Amino acid sequence: MHFRLVRYVTLTSLAFFLVAGGALAYFYRSLSIDNMLHLQESSNVNLTRVFANNLWSSHFLPLLQEAVATAAPDLGKNSRLQEIHRDTLELMRGSSAYKIKVYDLRGRTIYSSELQQIGEDKSDNAGFLGAAQGITKTELVHKEKFSAFENVVENRDLIQSYIPQYDPKSGTIVGVFEIYSDVTPFLATIRSTEQLLAAVVVLAFSALYLGLFVIVRSAERILKTQHRERDLALQQLAQSEKIASLGQLVAGVSHQLNTPLGFSVSNVTLAIEATRSFLLPLRVADRLAVQVRNAPPAERLMLNTADAQSQLSGITVSDKDGEMVIEMLGDVLQGLEQMRELVENLRDFTRLDRTKVVDANLNASLRTVVYVAKSAIPMRVQIVEEYGALPAIECNPSQLNQVFLNLITNAAQAIPGEGSITIRTAQESDRIRIDVIDTGAGIPSDVLPHIFDSYFTTKPKGEGTGLGLPITRDIVHSHGGEIAVETAEGHGTTFTITLPLISRTAPGN
Description:
Layout: H1 5-69, H2 81-92, E1 97-103, E2 109-112, H3 126-132, E3 137-148, E4 151-166, E5 173-182, H4 184-276, H5 279-294, H6 306-312, H7 319-349, E6 358-360, H8 362-373, E7 381-387, E8 393-395, H9 397-413, E9 419-428, E10 431-438, H10 468-478, E11 482-488, E12 492-500
Parallel strand pairs: 7-9
Antiparallel strand pairs: 1-2, 1-5, 3-4, 4-5, 6-8, 9-10, 10-12, 11-12
């Protein structure tokens, strides 16, 4: 059984578990971070409101107005900057904010809790541009080093939000707040939860896999048992079909045996009769030989032929009589050779060892099948053999013999009058091709889809089992081959078998 169910399920399950686990981890992390971003954005918006309520009117709005009024203001030298910075830091100490910045609508930094950043241009920043259009932009960033409260911190995960600020009177956007919040502890919690979830998933998948492994292992044993039982049933069906085919050959084989047997019996009978006429001359010759042996040397031998003449009267034996006996016995010997050849081919064909896999040349197998099949094929059907050079392949010759016989006898039955069956073999690359071509009536289009269905037959009841072609197909497939059919009504049918040079399946094993 080449399909290894346990190995297949193990590999596919492992791949599935890895993909599922990875997808679950990605989904959890994405969902957690999205929720954190949403919550922290809301927190940053609320913090911005706190800063705006406490510092906007008194500190940041005057800075904006001054920046708008002055074409190129030196924002870092504003006299009120230290007071604004002090009040801002004081307010930040009681919040989760790590840094805040305020931009005018030109993208200039009019204030930053990191003072050296005041005056920087952020007009091309995507977050600023979105907030300037009234859209709050938030993203998660990781900073290897980050200045907060004029101090430098390292390896921090931060939520960065750009939040539009509106004039309370006109409702128009007058500036943009940028605020950073530290979410390192939150991400650490997400990572630890993710690790715990991964451990739980691994344990759950392991338990699921163990249960699945046990089930699949049992299923594989059952499938192997069923496969062996199916092979045995197939062998029994094939043998039954072969016996049925042999039943159809009995009459032809009987004729093949009766013909040489009949003239052999006749010739032996004639030879016996001819031999009887040789007995008296042989006795006379024997007596003469005795007298010759007993006579003294150099003495003339006197014979009394009176008795012999009376006994030999009317008996004539010539060389032609002896030649006739020899010829008749030669015909008997030829007939016996024909019977021996027929019995030998029949024995090769009817071997019951259906599990033996050997290296065999299919041309030799086809010659045997054709010799046997001729016994049951009408004389009006001619078999043409066109064998190409073939290497030996690993196969079960007994099973393939049955395949060839099924196709040849089916082809003969498809020819209503005179016609021919051509059997052609050839090697094509790494495969062997066998064609069985008949000049019969072809297969009707409504019958063609069902020819390989078990128990389907177009023969009269009692004349066909409907198993010939299904068994043929199964045997070919068990050898790793394929069987195809081409037909045209009124123009004959071609069955084509292709078999691999190197067997991919050990039929019967």
